[in-house]
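Q: I'm building a small set of examples for a reading group on sequence design. Run inverse folding on the following structure and report the sequence directly after it, with nothing in between.
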């Protein structure tokens, strides 16, 4: 929803949303999460590709706006490598981004 997205394009939420996207991608795509074993993932709704897809859907929705892109690339935690990792996951698991988009809209 464009009205909801617009709330995340102004401070203080713009910087916090940029940090959230970067932090979640780093956590979900990092080594620690790759080794994580969840005994009953369905009980906790833990589906790694869907979780990453949700974060990427948010990033794609807000990334259409220059103000958000600027906030992301000026974050101290920003790295091209991290963004490539998220992009690879989106390409490999595109159906999960689609699921997430349906959930976000």
């Amino acid at each position: 929803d464009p009205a909801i997205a617009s709330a995340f394009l102004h401070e203080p939420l713009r910087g916090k949303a940029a940090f959230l996207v970067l932090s979640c991608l780093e956590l979900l795509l990092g080594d620690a999460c790759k080794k994580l074993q969840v005994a009953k993932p369905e009980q906790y709704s833990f589906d790694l590709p869907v979780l990453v897809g949700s974060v990427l859907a948010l990033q794609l929705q807000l990334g259409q706006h220059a103000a958000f892109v600027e906030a992301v690339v000026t974050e101290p935690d920003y790295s091209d490598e991290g963004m490539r990792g998220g992009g690879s996951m989106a390409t490999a698991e595109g159906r999960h981004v689609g699921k997430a988009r349906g959930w976000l809209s």
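The chain is about 70% helix and 0% strand.
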